[in-house]
Amino acid sequence: MKLSIIANPEKYSVKDALNRTVSWCMEKNHTVSLQKKLLKQLSGEAKDYPQIQLCDDERSCTADADFVIAIGGDGTLLHTAQVVKGMDIPVLGINTGKLGFMANVQPDDTEEALQALVDENFRIDSRTMLKATAKSGTDYFGLNEFLFTKKDTSSLITLDVFYNNEFLNRFWTDGLIVATPTGSTAYNLSAGGPIIKPGTPVMVVTPINPHTLTTRPLVLPSDGKLEIKVKEKPEHILFSYDGKTADENLSDIQIVESNYAIKLVQLTNQTYFKTLRSKLMWGMDNREQSE
Question: What is the model's pLDDT at position 225?
């Protein structure tokens, strides 16, 4: 078996899980590929790990891997999704960040999780990405969300939104989120949007601090086309996809469901609703604890 590791080499927090993963691969005689930059987080020298394959970039590291191990928080997993899109390689997330909603294997369970890959004791949770196409023809992909927000101004932004060429609404707001079901528990949830179970074929349009109280989040079928038109100077709008900022000013953008899906590895003891309860304290009632 060949594993590829993606982690932020500047984060000391990845050190323990990274070394545990590499040591397990050496002990079990599995091959592991990683960026050269990650060597500084290993406890030994490169010569101490004969099954390590080093590469300059993450895309080439993952090209022929059986599994990708993303070590970090959910931000690392979102970054990994951008790296592996279109490659059909399952991703296992080991959480060394804070919440770890998608990367939900804890470092102490690293060896158990890796052995589950060998034993095929897991299931695949397929998470579809959205695609945003700018007027320039550039495509952007989001596993969590696309975000339109104000830049270098305290004024509200104005956006006209259409769905399948039908006018939906004009949004006067601090920002607008277009989220996937995967991203429904991220910024969308903080902005008052609904929780949506992954796999549900929808997208969510959630305004951030809208000027009118009657403007509420909207759930739409993801097989349609969402179009967003900026009604002011494009340079006043910041557009980002999964936390990455676009390099261009966008005036019009079309959003549809993409052909890409990320295959997340879920261990047999993990379920979406268990994660909601344990990570977000979903449904917790303090009155029950005080009785």
Answer: 98
